[in-house]
Each structure stands twice: as structure tokens, then as C-alpha cells.
Amino acid sequence: MSKLAVFFPGIGYTADKPLLYYSRKLAAAHGYEVKVLSFSGFPEKAKGDEGKMALSVQIAITQSREMLKDIDLSEYEEVLFIAKSIGTIAAAAVASESPAREKIRMILYTPLEATFRYSLDGAIVFTGGADPWVGREKSRIPALCAEAKIPCVLIPGANHSLETENVWADITNLERIMGETEDYMRLGAEL
Predict the structure, then answer these.
(1) pLDDT above 70 as % of the chain
(2) How many CB atoms lie within 10 A of CB 1?
């Protein structure tokens, strides 16, 4: 079976940071061909600046389309988009316009609210209860997941990197997140 996992990083959260690094290792262990996207050219200090955020989103989407233009997703039996932060918006946008949309499932780490402008059928979300990018304790992400009828894993007290101020709690949380990520990868084989 041919399977592809495409990784969409965040602005500062590269594919070598824990969530994407370990999920990439899991994808490879489960037989996925791995494609890691790499973004560049984001404006500095985009957080909190609507104009810079809109430009950053457009950069991520445009660069994703360009990096994937020569890959025919319909040739794969399974396609998994694994994304972090602003990468979740790019992944959702690319998936929504793809002729292979029905084959694409998504693992979305700390999505931004704009991600929910797109169809997220076949997605799972991981979000932090203290994520300043989505309003800290007033995050609308769990409610948006409920509206979209997709699973949402909330990590209490975790920030935008799904980390807390306690390294041992972070290690325990990372193990839980990767366990649920792997379960979701296995689900594809059952579909």
C-alpha cells in the first residue's frame, strides 16, 4: 500500500521540534513516505498583527502549493497531512482544494482559528489549554472542533508548543500525544 505523510511546520516550530520530529518517526515506522515542507520569508513579529498574520498565512499556503505541485496525491492509497500552528491553515487549504480530498486525513497540532474556515473532515486536533495564540484559557478551539465534529485532545495548562513549565509533565504529555497520533495513523489502515 502506498502511503504519504506531508509535514507542514509552523512559523518557528520546525520539523525538528518534538511534535513533528516524533510524529515523522512514527509515520516512517508505519510505512508512510515522508515529505517535509519548509517555509521561509515570514514577516517578523506576526503574532497579534492582523496584517502580518494574513501575509504569513498566504506565504504558507502559496509555498505549500508550490512544494506539492509535482506530487499527485491521488496516486497514494493514503495521504496524511501533519501540521503545526500556521501550517494547519496551509494543510487545510491544500486539502480542501485537492482532487484527492477524500484520501487526506489530518493531524493538527495547535491549529489557529483560521484553520476552521476549511473542511476538516478526517482530522484530529491537539490543543493547549494555555495557548496564547488562541486566547489562553478562553480558547475556542475545543468548541470549533465540536462544531466540526472532529476529535479534540486538550492538554491542560499547555502552551502553543503543547508544553507546560514542568518538564516531566511535558514528557508525559508528549507520550500521550504521540500515542494518540499513532492510534490515528493506524486508523487509516482500517478505513
Answers:
(1) 94
(2) 8
As to burial, measured by CB atoms within 10 angstroms (0-12 exposed, 13-18 middle, 19+ buried), residue 185 is: buried
Please give the C-alpha separations between residue 179 and each of 97, 167, 172, in angstroms, as whole numbers.
Answer: 30, 18, 11
Q: What integer pLDDT is reported at residue 174 of this predicted model? A: 97
The edge-to-edge listing of strands for the beta sheet with 104-109 is: 33-36, 3-8, 78-84, 104-109, 123-128, 152-155
97: which residues sit within 8 A by CB, 6+ positions away? Answer: none
Q: Which three cell numbers stand for residue 71?
A: 506530487
Closest CA to 86 of 119, 106, 108: 108
**Contact, 66 vs 60, CB < 8 A?**
no
Handedness of CA 84, 173, 107, 116 (dihedral sign): negative
Question: What type of residue is 106?
Answer: M
User: Cell digits for 128?
Assistant: 493547549
Name residue 77's amino acid. Answer: E
How do residues 36-91 score in pLDDT, each as one tens digit? 999 988 888 777 778 888 889 999 999 999 999 999 999 999 999 999 999 999 99
Domains in the chain: boundaries: 3-190
Q: C-alpha 60: how far from its chain's center?
A: 13
**pTM, two decimal places:** 0.93
Classify domain 3-190 at the CATH topology level: Rossmann fold (3.40.50)
Please give the pLDDT value at position 189.
54
